[in-house]
Amino acid sequence: MTFADLALGEPVLKALKEIGYEAPSAIQAATIPPLLAGRDVVGMAQTGTGKTAAFALPIIDRLDVTQKSPQALVLAPTRELALQVCEAFEKYSAHLKGVHVLPVYGGQGYGVQLSALRRGVHVVVGTPGRIIDHLEKGTLDLSELKYLVLDEADEMLKMGFAEDVETILAETPETKQVALFSATMPATIRRMSKQYLHDPEEITVKAKTATSANIAQRYLVVQWQQKMDALTRILEVENFDGMIVFGRTKSVTEEIAEKLRARGYSAAAINGDIAQAQRERTVNQLKSGKLDILVATDVAARGLDVERISHVVNFDIPTDAESYVHRIGRTGRAGRTGDAISFVTPRERGLVKMIERATRQELTEIPLPSVDAVNETRLSRFDDRITAALGEGDRMEGFREIIAHYVRHHDVPETDVAAALAIVAQGDTPLLLEPDPEPKQLRRPDRERGDRPDRGDRFERPDRPERRQPREGFTTYRIALGKRQRVEPRQIVGALANEGGLRRDDFGAIKIMPDFSLVELPSDMSRDTLDRLADTEISGRPIELRIDTGRAPRRHDGPRRNDGERRPYGGDRDDRGGYERPRSYDRDDRSRSYDRDDRPPRKPRHTRDS
């Protein structure tokens, strides 16, 4: 079957041909015909099966470009997915003049969104929280909506968007066509489909969890702090052509690419924040050989097919088998061989077992390449450079005379001259690595203070419960809402994901306490993300996000104001720019103290009669 067999219009087919799509995937072949026929659809398919095109192509094919109010609304659980869907709509509508697509998500300024809505848009792709904001402000008109898509509906429910989604559905016309896509079908989604969809056609596509036999799959166990060093050593000992390094978050990809460039590698990052034009330039550089290493997030690498990719490195191992299969599928394509290497922290060993069970293929554990192995590889490459230079006979003759002249006039052995030239050629970077240092002693030896315990021992009492340590790469944050404010984990996940552009994988453990809550978030979040999260509210209450220190907040730990200063708890700004002391700290409210001369006379001490 081809896309032409699906009765799509010529402009859409032309765009698909330019992109390189040849045949529809299973979900596309099953979904596009009923959507073109006007039926509601419930599709069960995993991420990476091509469902974006499954709902985007029928919508684009039937858009009325003359209508300025939104005709299609796509709800996505995260900012990154919303941007990906927008990018797909723009690519598929490249040969339809005047089609405007608008991403709407938390963290982006309202001004850009409002200007676009006033000019007129045909497709709106957004997260539920920000769509609700526009509906409440009256800046988004859905009265003429024709198509509504719920993308990854189960993820939206897990993130606490169930009420928002139903509110949005209630604001849309009854005559709209609805497409609901989900990886699973929990009871809530089943109820929602019965309530809001009219006689939907249910389509199920099983996820592909098989990996290619042409891909050698390996992993090594490293601590989080060792990952960058491990990646550098892998690059030293592996004979690779092109490589993709997968990171879990956008900030991680940018940090990895920057550190690789500092080590002399040609590397670049692509993620949801990269403009489409820049993404295409980067991919073309990888194809042409001007770039050797691409550092990417899952979403940014979707649909990427570069022939020279010989290696895939999972800097952060994915938490589901489908993402793992999708990642390593970027290599070993069209019968070629490939290599996939995953970095696994000690706490993530269970993920390896999960992937092995799902793919029915064993991953081979390998050790961290040693200094000797790296040095051996460097010497081998150095030998190859010398051999290649010796093969250039014409150029060699002139340099022989120069070396002979130096030896005669300075009385230096030729081997010393050759060593000196090697130093000049190598530059400041040493050719060989120093041996690994001996493991550091983690604890100080006990001081010679008799039987008196060391000061630190007071904090190691066995009967004192230990504070839970966050998992690798995560930091525990405190928010100022708890059980007394009736906050629930789903509300925390939904609010933070909407405002900070976070995914489900970016959340660790969540613990609700009486007056506050603790949530584990990635340690590498950017300052921009933290600033957006600091302004987040749940049910109209500010969450006052801060790093948890294990103690009750002090006065100087107050939330940041817009001017960057901290506001002490209970204190308000006074007219002089300072902070007034809370009334509970005022000496006038305490019991009065007396001067010595004003004290009341003391009663005589009672003595026992003899």
TrEMBL record:
Enzyme class: hydrolase
Limits of the DEAD-box RNA helicase Q domain: 1-29
Membrane-crossing residue ranges in chain numbering: none
EC numbers on record: 3.6.4.13
All residue ranges annotated as the Helicase ATP-binding domain in the record: 32-203
Annotated segments matching region Disordered: 430-475, 544-610
Motif stretch (Q motif): 1-29
Localization per record: Cytoplasm
Record PROSITE patterns: DEAD_ATP_HELICASE (PS00039), HELICASE_ATP_BIND_1 (PS51192), HELICASE_CTER (PS51194), Q_MOTIF (PS51195)
Superkingdom to which the source organism belongs: Bacteria
GO MF term set: helicase activity
Composition bias, Basic and acidic residues: 437-471
Catalysed transformations (reactions): ATP + H2O = ADP + phosphate + H(+)
Domain Helicase C-terminal: 230-374
Pfam families per record: DbpA, DEAD, DeaD_dimer, Helicase_C
Function field: DEAD-box RNA helicase involved in various cellular processes at low temperature, including ribosome biogenesis, mRNA degradation and translation initiation.
Family under the similarity heading: Belongs to the DEAD box helicase family. DeaD/CsdA subfamily.
Protein name from the UniProt record: ATP-dependent RNA helicase DeaD
Species assigned in the record: Microbacterium candidum
